[in-house]
From TrEMBL:
<dbReference type="Pfam" id="PF00293">
    <property type="entry name" value="NUDIX"/>
</dbReference>
<protein>
    <submittedName>
        <fullName>NUDIX hydrolase</fullName>
    </submittedName>
</protein>
<dbReference type="InterPro" id="IPR015797">
    <property type="entry name" value="NUDIX_hydrolase-like_dom_sf"/>
</dbReference>
<dbReference type="InterPro" id="IPR000086">
    <property type="entry name" value="NUDIX_hydrolase_dom"/>
</dbReference>
<dbReference type="GO" id="GO:0016787">
    <property type="term" value="F:hydrolase activity"/>
</dbReference>
<dbReference type="InterPro" id="IPR020476">
    <property type="entry name" value="Nudix_hydrolase"/>
</dbReference>
<keyword id="KW-0378">Hydrolase</keyword>
Amino acid sequence: MQQVANCIVIDQEQILVLKKPKHGWYAIPGGKMEFGETIKEAVVREYKEETNLTIQDPKLAGVFTFTIIEGERRIEEWMMYTFTCKSYRGELAEFCREGELEWVPINHVQHLPMAEGDRLIYKQIFENEHVVSGAFAYTPTDKLIEYRMDY
């Protein structure tokens, strides 16, 4: 199972999002863990690679599993660790090979185009102070089939 880590960086009631070319959907910067990394090491490294920002003291906010299902078959599965952070160093990258970086007001995030599961994740992370978890199933064309969340 592939593992990924991402981080919602909050700065003055805004968060940094990444507009990905696929579907034009917005996502949280982050990426795949490397062999032997802790989830915190992975999120710091991936965030720096994508944004040029060094996040400081990220806090685990959610743990989620994602499954891609085609018919009765599971064709892909991964686990995502989502952190939040209010402190960082550095200057935002002018270019990101993964897409376009953009600061967005927190109250506008729910209106951005994104995967439906991501919308549910944002909502629960912003409404809860404890770690939330969930499981999401999608079709190969990124349609949400079902989900469960523990609040």
